[in-house]
Structures are given as C-alpha cells and as structure tokens.
C-alpha cells in the first residue's frame, strides 16, 4: 500500500466536499491518503472494488510500520486514490484486529473482495506481496507474522473511475 501521499488540490476539494456534506469540522483532516497495492494497475483494480462496496477490508504487516508511521485505528477517515493518485472514495475504519498470518480467516478474505474471495486466493495474493515487503525490510515472512486486519466502510458517494 502506498501511503503518505500529499493533499493535492483535487484531494483537498474532494475532502472539503465530504466534510461539508457530513457536517464535520472544517479542521478535520484525513488520517491517511493512499492507494492500495504497489502498481498503478493494482491500485485501479482495488480502488474499483472499494468504490463498488465489494472490498471492505485490508491487511497489513504490523511489524513493518515505521516507529513514526500511523497504525490504522477505529474511527480513521482515509482518502483512497486510484492508480493515478485521484481520489475515488473516503473510508472510515470500523474494526482493527491483529492476528497471525496463518490465522487470517475466510471471512476476512471474503471482505477483502479480491479474486474469488476465498482464503486460498487471499493467501496466493498476499504471500508474494508480504514476501516482497519483508525482503525490502531485510526480513523473512513466517506463517506467524502479525497482520493488522482492518475493516472499513465507504462513507462517500461512489465515483466512477475513468
């Protein structure tokens, strides 16, 4: 997941419209602005799943967060970007659970909304992703790595991707 993107003018307008429609404080800022995945194509595919309501969960490796990096928490508002860094949705985190990689369950895999939504598919997609992330950090993935399983809801109106 590419995190820490900046508040571009387009993101600012999208966020401001959301806070006005929801009658939230104009001082409220999004917790994170990011796209899912590590390629433009993956970001587009996963953001489409979020916008359609099929993807309502995500998983990250808790051990790989930097000490000063925000760890998702219930109540976070996040701006989701497509592969060209355009805002497509705002999500609100509704649940965070830490489980071992080998204990991620079929329900969570289904809520991630990817592929055929089975646990087998989830593992086949996440294992190479986590292997690469761990290798980049000079570490090795094991079946017992701590995973942050996050659930969210889309709180903005849907927007078609171009």
Main sheet overview: 5 strands, mixed
Percentage of residues assigned to helices: 25-40%
Across the major sheet, the strand order is 1-3-4-5-2
Quaternary structure: single chain
| Helix and strand pattern | HEHEEEHHE
What percentage of the residues does DSSP assign to strands (E)?
15-25%
Quote the average pLDDT: 91
Instruction: Give the tally of β-strands.
Output: 5
| Structural class by sheet pairing and helices | alpha+beta
Taking pLDDT < 50 over at least 5 consecutive residues as the criterion, the unreliable ranges are none
End-to-end separation: 21 Å
Q: Which shape, going by the Cα principal axes?
A: globular
Evaluate the radius of gyration. Answer: 15 Å
Q: How many separate helices?
A: 4
Short recap of the structure:
The chain has 162 residues and is of the alpha+beta class. Helices cover 31% and strands 22% of the residues.
Which key terms come to mind for this protein?
alpha+beta, 5-stranded mixed β-sheet, globular
